[in-house]
Each structure stands twice: as structure tokens, then as C-alpha cells.
């Protein structure tokens, strides 16, 4: 098959062996696959996985790896021991985890589990979901990106006495905003340096957008929170003072989480989804004195993934504002470079 292959830190498009489905696996043809910031982190920071002994994400620079974990695909074949409950030709997607004899592998981040930047890939039949929708595959493939922010916002359980602050309006931050809006949470304050991303955040449901180059995000949050505390919507906050602060860190650049720790209100709950691969130095004593609660990452649960998938496929969640152009396999190396540009769209989609 043709694939955009990562090896030795660079990506080139060439011919590689077709993947062969093992027990419980499906062979599928990639129809569309989004380029994610985690693809860039994976290829740029091979050292980031050295402390991970799970084997789920493995970057061996001397072995071919086909990235791409946000896909919509078509069933073309079955491995041994499969139920064959999904007919050939059916459009599908799945949580990007492949169950193998050696253990679980993240699709697109391991030599054993090639991703959607190639013509074919393997899926685990048990967690594969049928696309019940007429929407284009380029839209459906965004569901996995949505599921990350969707799951994080769900776990946060933001109450009527809290005002959320979303820092970073890439795809994950935008999906946090969309989920908060879907849950009826608000007002939502969104922060990003890039004007285009702030406008996309507003389109996805943010009530207030902030350029941190001109206004402190925490000053802006306080202004919104003071208004919320005095509103008839939340009498409890009016009695107790400012609403609580819930910050979603969705940047993934060193220094951002620490700046949140130093700048946020006492008692803030922080959900860190960004996770810079270089690591982060945190002022833990400041966090202790403020009584902060920091929850790190974690992928979406199957339930949250299914909910996000249904929301996208049904059209209940419009992901159009996230989408940019589409590229073919030969254009993937250039598209990966373009995806580094914060002024670009949240998602460039590969159509093999």
C-alpha cells in the first residue's frame, strides 16, 4: 500500500507492506484521517516515550511507522476469530486502540498498529463503530479529536457555581467548549493568542474570548465571574462570593500550566489536557498554598467516545468551524508542517 511513513524523524510517502489482520481485527481502507497536534509531538519528541513501559506508544526511529489516529474508514476484510458483524463496504471508526497478542497499541503511534496516513489499517472489531450518517468522511473523522475534550469536560462536572476558563483553542480546547455548551454550562471564557482561533471558539460556543497578549486571562475571568455572581441565574454564588474557577489547559507548551498555577484563583480546579512532551516545571508550593486541584489528562472513556462520535455523526455538533483543507498522501509531509502554524485551521484532513 501507499503510505506517509515516519522514519528517523522525517515523513515520506512510499510503498510499504499491507497490514494483515490478526485475531479479532478488521482490515479497513482509510477514507479520511485528521492531522493532530499529538502526531507532531510524537514525531518531534521520540524521547517522550522512554518512560512509558506499556508498549502502547513506541517510536523506534529505525522502523517504519504510519501515523494517523483520527480516521473514518471502510471495512474490506476480516481477521481470524472475528464475528464479521460489520459488512464489507461499511464506513466505520473506532477509539484508536488496537488489541494485539502482545498487548494494546495506540493506532498510529506504534510499528504494530499503522494509522490512517496509509491506504489500509487495522481496527479492533469489538470497539469498532458503524458510521450511521450521510456526512462526509472528512467530517466524521474529527469525532476522535472531539472525544478528548468531550470526555475532559464531562469528567469536570462543572457546577452552576463555577465559571470555566478554557486556555488554548486548538481542536481539544474547542471540543471542551463544545461539550460545555452542550451541557448548558456557561458563561465560558476562552483564551488564545490567535484571532482566528478565538473566532472559532466563539463559533463553537464560547461566551467571552480573550487575547492574553492584551488582557490577563485571570483578570478577564474575574470580570466575567463577578457578573455571574451577581446574576439571578446563580443566587448561591451571589451569597458566597465569586463562582469557583475551573481551568482547562489545552495548549501543551511548557510554562502554560505553571502560569495557570501562579495566576489562578485560590481553590481552582485545573484539568491539564495539553501535556507538553518536553515536560513541565511546576510551582507546587504555590499550588499547595492556593489549595489547587490538578487533574492530568487521560484518554476518553469508551462511553464518552461513543457520545462524541454520535454527536458528530448525527450533526448535533457542527464541527465545520474546525475543518481546513484536505490533502492526499503525497502532500502529508508538507501538511504536517502546515499544521504547526497556529494561524491555520484546527484540522487538516488526509484523504488517502
TrEMBL record:
Highest taxon of source: Bacteria
Domain Alcohol dehydrogenase-like N-terminal: 22-126
Pfam families to which the protein is assigned, alphabetical: ADH_N (PF08240), ADH_zinc_N (PF00107)
Alphabetic keyword roster: Oxidoreductase
Transit peptide as UniProt keyword: no
InterPro entries, per the entry: ADH-like_C, ADH-like_N, GroES-like_sf, NAD(P)-bd_dom_sf
Domain Alcohol dehydrogenase-like C-terminal as annotated: residue spans: 171-309
PANTHER family hit by this protein: ZINC-TYPE ALCOHOL DEHYDROGENASE-LIKE PROTEIN C1198.01 (PTHR43189:SF1), ZINC-TYPE ALCOHOL DEHYDROGENASE-LIKE PROTEIN C1198.01-RELATED (PTHR43189)
Name of this chain's protein: Zinc-binding dehydrogenase
Organism per entry: Streptomyces hyaluromycini
Amino acid at each position: 500500500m501507499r503510505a506517509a511513513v515516519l522514519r528517523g524523524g522525517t515523513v515520506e510517502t512510499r510503498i510499504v507492506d499491507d497490514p494483515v489482520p490478526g485475531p479479532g481485527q478488521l482490515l479497513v481502507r482509510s477514507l479520511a484521517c485528521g492531522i493532530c497536534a499529538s502526531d507532531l509531538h510524537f514525531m518531534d519528541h521520540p524521547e517522550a516515550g522512554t518512560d512509558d513501559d506499556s508498549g502502547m506508544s513506541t517510536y523506534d526511529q529505525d522502523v517504519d511507522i504510519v501515523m494517523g489516529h483520527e480516521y473514518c474508514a471502510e471495512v474490506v476484510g476480516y481477521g481470524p476469530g472475528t464475528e464479521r458483524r460489520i459488512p464489507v463496504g461499511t464506513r466505520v471508526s473506532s477509539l484508536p486502540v488496537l488489541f494485539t497478542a502482545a498487548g494494546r497499541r495506540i493506532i498510529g503511534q506504534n510499528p504494530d498498529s499503522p494509522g490512517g496516513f496509509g491506504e489500509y489499517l487495522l481496527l479492533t472489531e469489538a470497539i469498532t463503530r458503524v458510521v450511521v450518517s450521510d456526512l462526509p468522511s472528512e467530517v466524521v473523522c474529527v469525532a476522535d479529536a472531539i472525544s478528548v475534550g468531550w470526555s475532559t469536560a464531562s469528567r469536570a462536572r462543572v457546577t452552576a457555581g463555577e465559571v470555566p476558563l478554557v486556555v488554548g483553542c486548538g481542536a481539544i480546547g474547542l471540543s471542551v467548549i463544545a461539550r460545555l455548551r452542550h451541557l448548558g454550562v456557561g458563561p465560558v471564557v476562552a483564551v488564545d493568542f490567535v484571532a482566528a482561533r478565538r473566532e472559532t471558539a466563539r463559533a463553537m460556543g464560547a461566551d467571552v474570548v480573550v487575547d492574553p497578549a492584551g488582557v490577563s486571562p485571570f483578570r478577564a475571568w474575574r470580570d466575567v465571574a463577578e457578573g455571574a455572581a451577581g446574576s439571578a441565574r446563580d443566587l448561591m454564588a451571589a451569597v458566597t462570593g465569586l463562582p469557583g474557577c475551573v481551568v482547562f489547559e489545552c495548549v501543551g507548551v511548557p510554562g502554560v500550566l505553571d502560569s495557570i498555577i501562579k495566576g489562578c484563583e485560590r481553590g481552582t480546579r485545573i484539568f491539564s489536557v495539553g501535556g507538553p512532551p518536553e515536560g513541565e516545571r511546576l510551582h507546587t508550593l504555590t499550588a499547595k498554598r492556593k489549595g489547587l486541584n490538578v487533574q492530568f489528562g487521560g484518554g476518553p472513556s469508551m462511553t464518552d467516545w461513543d457520545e462524541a462520535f454520535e454527536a458528530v455523526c448525527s450533526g448535533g455538533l457542527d464541527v465545520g468551524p474546525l475543518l481546513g483543507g484536505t490533502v492526499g498522501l503525497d502532500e502529508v509531509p508538507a501538511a504536517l508542517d502546515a499544521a504547526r502554524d497556529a494561524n491555520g485551521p484546527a484540522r487538516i484532513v488526509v484523504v488517502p
